[in-house]
Amino acid sequence: MVSKIFVDSDVLLDLFLLREPHLAYTQELLSLRNPSIQLFTSSVIINNLYYFIVKERGKSIAKTSLSTLLNLLKALPVTQNTIELALESEFNDFEDALQYFTAIENGCQRIVTRNLKHYKKSYIPALTAEDFLKTL
To answer: What is the three-class DSSP state of 112?
Structure first.
């Protein structure tokens, strides 16, 4: 059975903004070559990553970086239903709600994030990249 893992923006920003000590865990996560694990994120996260990478490192690096990223994971669409669920939810952070319901709608079994407190009410287990890698 294939495990579908949703990767949150903070984890991916660790990679692109070279944030230590988390960088190595994200690199290891994205380098997994296990056919039973598929990595996903959302189109909203791709948009947010583009913004931050351009701001910190420039447009050319942003485009190249995101093209490479999309070879390692799949960007899931954020639908109207996702937005409505997020708006009606009890999440304090709207962006986290969007990510959570995108993961739910697409059958993801885990969320990899550094904002564990934002996913306290999640039906999907939320783990840090470090803790997820320990489960393998």
So the answer is: strand
